[in-house]
């Protein structure tokens, strides 16, 4: 394009002001070309786009996944649930390899949104390209209390399903007071290991190594980690970042049909003395610090991405001073 215009300049008798005007026109065209390239790249338009939501239990994940199932036909992507036998949160080594290869090379199922209750998996370890990891986490004690009552009273998602603790009316406070194993503070140890991964030490309650590894993975290997308490904002950031998959997600969420897809039928808030007992636990301290760390990062990402009404701020950079002309 530039050479064509230069040939035109040489072939014609034109004024100096016309040359300057033409140069400005060329600069504008180049700017638009570079900006368009940036926007296309930012939209993740390639067909091999893969998102993996390794969902933490009882963090509102069913509600969020419901959005993906409602959007997949309209936005032309596949949704696949990864179900690990016996509800295990880690895979055997052969399964890790098989899954990494499947997810990276299953072209017929791309673009894709995978989800399942599986701890973070390092795809590079198996020579496979990594998907875009996303996740949601929740205030640790709230998550544990919700799960405790869920096992006893179920939820409104499948109200007729009999849960394994159904009929047991012991409150969470009494469970803690009686020192029952189900209410041991070590049972809080879930969100840290989910982000830590498949190493044995990830699942050792109170491991500071696992805690640091989880933070490192969150920052380096996750596209986005939101919090259950701000799911609407999480949805908005995803729509702004990956519109290929999540275009229309915020509107759908605000309709309400998917906002609270799974609510525990009965939940009694723990007493102050119960909360105090947990706060003396190393496990609670590390889990809570990890939650606060994730929350700070999400707040920062949200502030740079969204306007107050949760709409996209749009592209906030451009190219200039492009040389040579």
UniProtKB/TrEMBL annotation:
Keyword Glycoprotein recorded: yes
GO molecular function terms attached to this record: heparan sulfate 2-sulfotransferase activity
Main location: Golgi
Cited Pfam families: Sulfotransfer_2
This protein's record includes keyword ATP-binding: no
Keywords noted in UniProt: Disulfide bond, Glycoprotein, Golgi apparatus, Membrane, Signal-anchor, Transferase, Transmembrane, Transmembrane helix
Recorded coiled-coil stretches: none
Domain of life: Eukaryota
Membrane topology: Single-pass type II membrane protein
The family this protein is said to belong to: Belongs to the sulfotransferase 3 family.
PANTHER family membership: HEPARAN SULFATE 2-O-SULFOTRANSFERASE, HEPARAN SULFATE 2-O-SULFOTRANSFERASE 1
Subunit structure: Homotrimer.
Name used for this protein in its record: EOG090X088H
